[in-house]
Amino acid sequence: MEIYYPEGAPPPYETVVQPGPQFQAYENIVHRGGGCMPPNQPYYIQPQPAIPVVVSRPSPQTQVTVCNTTNVSYVNRRRYFGITGIVILCLILLAIAIWLGVRYGSQMTSMTSSVYDIKTQDICPNNTIICDGHQDCNLGSDEAVCVTFGLNSTVMVRTSQDEIFHPMCSQGWGQSYADQTCAQLGFQKSYQYTIVPSQVFPTASVTNTASKFIQGEVTVSPSCPSGKTVSLMCTNCGQQYIGTRIVGGTQAELGQWPWQVSLHYQSSHMCGGSLIAPNFVVSAAHCFLWKTPVSLNPSKWAVYGGMISQNQLPSPYLVSNIYINGNYNNITNDYDIALLKLTQQVVFSNTFAPVCLPAFDQTFAPGTTCYTSGYGVTSQGSATVSTNLMMVNVGIIATSICNNVHIYGGLITNNMICAGYLSGGKDSCQGDSGGPLVCKGSNQLWYLAGLTSWGSGCAQLNQPGIYSNVTALLPWIYTTMQESML
């Protein structure tokens, strides 16, 4: 969490990156997981346990830089090897490969069932019908994209009749339908529902048809006799449990951001995340995709929530499954999102409670003041994450501005949100990856707008932070939660 205010003006843009239509290279992009970095150099951080050594990712013209390690060119070293040396080296590498296969082979096999994008492994027959209330695909993807929420938590259902989302008419609705809908989406049960006036037609209306899925129990109707629709909340989300006293770049108070979690890899803080359901935490994909397969093992991770200090950790929640979006691109950082399923459900309290997911069409306008929080480093170049939970206010910046040739030069996709200040000074940083970017809605609840993903440096001039766009990635979140429950 970059919260310092540097003396004088930030360094010129040219000292950070070389602008151009293609932004020159992706090597300057910084994932915001834990790690060290070479001072005054463009860098690309990969999360590392215990923060030992981190290597910059070079372009073909860039020399490799290693923290705390002498920089030696492989080309220069290679000329001293004769043919015999090469043969010996190959034999050594072969022996190492065999040893790694024996050592980690079974472990990697066991992990493949815990780390995947469910949709990529689903098998559907040719006659599959989407949203008809009958599961045709073996993992249920045909029925996992049929329920969502509109503004003000309006239940939106689509059926096989027209495959269009319609608001749910309140006529015939009851508690059992509310619980069924939330359970179908991967929540434990419903929290509350309300009936609200509506003039939107057509609607989805419940019928007497019995089905495992709510979309199989409704029909599209040109009118709604009650003239009202259903607003449903599956969790008591987005609430702060202290008096709001928010100042950019300060230490958070207990209960201020109760959805914030700290993800520990083998007893070390690695990334942040947000509680969104009793047994689901959302974070960034790059936190789990390292060069070592062990980082994908759920048993190596622990989730801590309900606290604001790394020195006062409560009992951890363990992870049963890690789901990575199958479209994640570790070069462009597109689709940088992961979902963790916990082995047990969280009992909500004033210090540990979920954040609200946005509506399927909810956007956060440029200029909106939002907040990001985390245990990341408090200054660029630091190798030590913060002991205390820190927070900072950031402004939403239009994608068109961030894609300017002098800022990120077209690297921002529809799955990303740009937030911060072009003047620098306030930003997330290494160790904050996967953590929340939240914005307050008109109903005074806090919504998860983004997930801390990447940036060029921290708090630099013309280099605001980039966050995964949760609204754009909602279908994957709900589909993954639902299919994991089938």
Short description:
With 486 residues, the chain is of the alpha+beta class.
Question: Can you describe this structure?
Answer:
The model is unreliable at 2-28, 35-87 and 100-113 (pLDDT under 50). This protein is an alpha+beta fold. Helices cover 14% and strands 22% of the residues. It has helices at 74-78, 83-111, 118-121, 175-185, 399-402, 470-485, and strands at residues 30-31, 147-149, 155-157, 166-167, 192-197, 203-206, 218-221, 228-233, 250-251, 260-265, 268-277, 280-283, 301-305, 317-324, 338-342, 369-374, 390-397, 416-420, 436-440, 446-455, 465-469. The chain is globular.
Defining key terms:
single chain; 486 residues; alpha+beta; six-stranded antiparallel barrel; 6 helices; 21 strands; disordered N terminus
Can you write the helix and strand succession as a string? EHHHEEEHEEEEEEEEEEEEEHEEEEH
Euclidean distance between termini CA atoms: 38 Å
Shape: globular
Radius of gyration: 24 Å
Number of helices: 6
DSSP summary, beta strand count: 21
What helical percentage do the residues reach?
10-25%
**Structural class by SSE content:** alpha+beta
* Uncertain regions spanning at least 5 consecutive residues: 2-28, 35-87, 100-113
Query: Quick check: average pLDDT?
Result: 80
Main beta sheet strand tally, sense and closure? 6 strands, antiparallel, barrel
Our estimate of the beta-strand percent is 15-25%
Strands of the widest sheet, in order across it, are: 16-17-18-21-20-19
